[in-house]
Specification:
Phenylalanyl-tRNA Synthetase, Chain B, domain 1; seven-stranded mixed sheet; alpha+beta; globular
């Protein structure tokens, strides 16, 4: 859980005023934080920000920034100056297929002490483990600037071709040895499963900075007390997330008094300058505020509340801070208006209409099926309704069959509405392949797809089992029992489906309706998801099945 620790005195210095512990406790609620403890002897405060979707709050600098807005010590988006740097990073085409994105900046002008190192590392670890999905999506490196020779090179190399002394080790090791012998190598080796070459950062003197995303060098990749400058880098598979990491750290270090310098990134096909301070503007309407909260607010009041939340406001056009990427809809901004106004201050109103509630027959039917599947020893999972075409089709070895795309999406990862459920289960298997087998999971939920000019919506359930003996018979038995419990007879017809092994896939037919695919997953699909264990699965259309049962 993202629990952060910091000195109360440090927080007060960053905010610019005295704060009681009671005030800190109350102010933490604005960021969905839970106050845990204060040790008067050590001056150490602990706050759990595990429920927040704002990773900038996983640092005392970010928390202080939130407080300055709430107390109106700072209005609107905090200003940050990025100085033009003469530093460069060259990205070799060899690394693009493995870990293609990088963002950097240099921070100079302040003495680094042990406490600051502790705070920087704390934010680094919280961000990489949670938002960065245990370094797979984003990893971060910090380096002593004075030991570097620019330009820095980002490339992928043969595992045995490079040797260096990893952090806290004196002896040199090649990349293969680091993965098998270094504690961090053992912990994160799974990220590089299936890679023929490994990404590294190396300076212009051939000094290794880092074996990305595993471990820094003991020479260049170690910040020490009394340093007065550093290089920050973030690499990953999601460009937006990599840039967000750089923005969060740049703001944090700027508030510590560091001067931030840009870095020129030379990709094989383009040149960019980072950090990239996102410039996003969202339009809201007063009618939306009234609809959600029942509040009649003047434009000046909306401006005041949004500036407390550290947005810039110009005639209902709201500019989002560069360290936030959680705004997916105008309602996300309006939520912050409610937080700053105070939900406890919104007066209650009487209900205008009254109804007697009851469970929908379809919901009761779905719950019955879920209980049957749980009885077979499957564990229920939940995943976002938004996903991407790569997961839905490319990795599943099939063509697009009618995707609904998001027109103005925030991230490529969540750019379409899911058209079937099984890819979600495959993603979960891929993230849990280092845990104990067998793994048996299922998910029930809505899917949406285009069919001609129409949009179709169904409730479905996907069921999957992964272990060395997973096979067609296993999932056939699950389907057989579900339909038997529902009093339905069915037939299986031979079928073809790119996601399944030819000859080991079937289509279930109930009263002339095609209600399910079932079979053993194609080795091409397993390879695409980085899986070694076989997977057997089925996907059942619950809406179709309910209509059949309801008409009996």
């Amino acid at each position: 859980m993202p629990t952060i620790t910091f000195s109360l005195k440090d927080l007060q210095n960053l905010v610019g005023r005295k704060l009681t512990i009671e005030e800190v406790q109350e102010l933490a609620h604005y960021g969905k934080g839970d106050f845990e403890s204060y040790d008067k002897g050590t001056d150490e405060v602990k706050i759990d920000f595990g429920d927040t979707n704002l990773p900038y709050l996983w640092s005392v600098e970010g928390f202080a920034r939130l407080i300055k807005g709430i107390l109106e010590l700072q209005k609107g988006i905090p200003k940050i100056k990025i100085h033009k740097g003469d530093y460069g990073v060259v990205v070799d085409k060899s690394v693009i297929k493995y870990r293609p994105f990088i963002s950097c900046f240099a921070a100079k002008g302040q003495k680094i002490d042990d406490y600051l190192i502790k705070q920087i590392v704390q934010l680094q670890e919280k961000f990489c483990e949670t938002y960065g999905r245990r370094r797979q999506k984003v990893s971060i490196g910090l380096y002593s600037y004075k030991r570097l020779a620019f330009p820095v090179h980002y490339r992928a190399v043969e595992p045995l071709s490079v040797e260096f002394a990893p952090l806290e080790f004196k002896a040199k090791m090649n990349l293969k040895e680091i993965l098998s012998e270094h504690p961090k190598g053992k912990e994160y080796a799974w990220i590089l499963d299936g890679f023929e070459r490994y990404p590294i950062l190396i300076d212009n003197r051939n000094e290794v900075l880092s074996f990305v995303p595993i471990i820094n060098s003991n020479f260049t990749g170690k910040l020490e007390a009394q340093d007065d400058s550093m290089l920050f880098e973030a690499t990953g598979t999601d460009e937006e997330a990599v840039n967000l990491a750089a923005n969060i750290f740049a703001y944090a270090l700027c508030e510590r008094g560091f001067d931030i310098y840009s870095v020129d990134i030379k990709y094989p096909e383009k040149r960019i300058t980072v950090p990239n301070l996102f410039d996003e503007t969202v339009t809201i309407k007063n009618e939306q505020i009234k609809h959600l909260f029942g509040l009649e607010l003047k434009e000046s009041e909306v401006k005041h509340l949004l500036e407390k939340a550290q947005f810039d406001f110009d005639g209902y056009k709201v500019k989002v801070p560069p360290y936030r990427r959680d705004i997916l809809h105008p309602y996300d901004i309006i939520e912050d208006i409610g937080i700053m106004y105070g939900f406890d201050k919104i007066t209650e109103s009487s209900l205008e209409t009254y109804t007697i509630g009851s469970t929908l027959k379809l919901s009761e039917f779905i719950d019955k099926v879920r209980e049957i599947v749980v009885g077979f020893g499957y564990q229920e999972v939940m995943s976002p309704i938004l996903t991407n075409k790569d997961f839905l089709y490319k990795k599943m070895n099939i063509d697009d069959f009618g995707t609904i795309e998001i027109e103005d999406y925030m991230s490529e990862t969540y750019s379409v509405v899911r058209s079937w459920l099984l890819p979600n289960l495959m993603e979960i298997f891929s993230k849990n392949k280092h845990f104990e087998f067998p793994q048996k999971i299922f998910e029930e939920g809505l899917i949406n797809a285009r069919k001609g000019e129409n949009i179709i919506e169904f409730s479905r359930i996907a069921i999957a089992s992964s272990h060395e003996d997973a096979n067609y018979t296993e999932v056939r038995q699950v389907l057989d029992y579900i339909l038997k419990c529902l009093g339905l007879k069915y037939d299986i017809e031979e079928s073809e489906h790119g996601s399944f092994i030819e000859g080991r896939v079937g289509r279930a037919i109930v009263k002339g309706r095609k209600v399910a695919y079932l079979g053993e997953l194609n080795p091409l699909v397993l390879t695409a998801w980085g899986l070694e264990m076989p997977v057997a699965a089925l996907e059942l259309n619950l809406t179709e099945l309910f209509e059949i049962v309801d008409r009996k």
